[in-house]
Amino acid sequence: MTSTVLVVDDEPKLRRLVKDYLERDGFIVLEAGTGRRALELIAAGRPDLVILDLGLPDLPGEEVAHLVRRDSDVPIVILTAKAAENDRVMGLRLGADDYVVKPFSPRELVARVEAVLRRTRAGRTAEPEIASYGGGRLSIDAERREVRVNGEPVTLTRTEFDLLAALASRPGRAWTRLELISRVQGYDFEGYERTIDVHVKNLRRKLDDTPPSQLILTTPGVGYKLGVERDA
């Protein structure tokens, strides 16, 4: 399985160095020179792992890690010149999976990336492949991209499935339209925010999702959320 790694660093030469070594080992590499660009790419659901520098020009790397961990379990490997023990401890407490100090060995960094991905995948294999919500009312098979409502299959477009999966990743969390379009389409241009309303309308129709017990709820002034909890 080919993995995608996002390298976040404001030094182009360092990004190129890391990219070259990762690509030699078969990884697909994305690049971001700022924290905001990194958050955009992560919100789009594209990387399998993030290599994150803490000294970014717009947002502190610690803040980026905090924002990522609030909404995502994507593995994070911190790559920074901050070598003090307190910095390492803080980075790991923020949810980083590993911490590499500059100057560093590119080969060792690649090995650490591979190790983190192995651990992550090993942990996920124990999870059920089909997620169920609302006492079995809704089920989502992410592997096969299949959805059932009350046991009956529902045919969704790619965008509709990705939208439902995004909502279901955090039941009860209110997602803004901007967040959802970033997750579904991979960009957050303001003019496309309202297209989410159209997709939600179509999704509700296909799910036969009507009041008073709607699966997808509108959060006034914000966006949408999944109104049922994931089953244990």
**Mean pLDDT score:** 86
User: What structural class do helix, strand and pairing data support?
Assistant: alpha/beta
Can you count the beta strands? 12
Q: Please mark out the parts with pLDDT under 50 across 5 or more consecutive residues, or reply none.
A: 187-191
Within the CATH hierarchy, at the fold level, what is the topology of the largest domain?
Answer: Rossmann fold
Explain this structure to me?
The chain is α/β, with parallel strands linked by helices and 232 residues long. The protein has helices at residues 12-24, 35-43, 61-71, 85-93, 106-124, 158-169, 177-185, 195-206, and strands at 4-8, 28-32, 49-52, 76-80, 98-101, 130-133, 138-141, 146-149, 152-154, 175-176, 216-219, 223-226. The protein has a five-stranded parallel beta sheet with strand order 2-1-3-4-5, sandwiched between helices. A four-stranded antiparallel beta sheet has the order 6-7-8-9, with helices on one face. Strands 10-12-11 form a three-stranded antiparallel beta sheet. Helix 1 packs across helix 5, helix 2 runs parallel beside helix 3 (61-71) and helix 6 packs across helix 8.
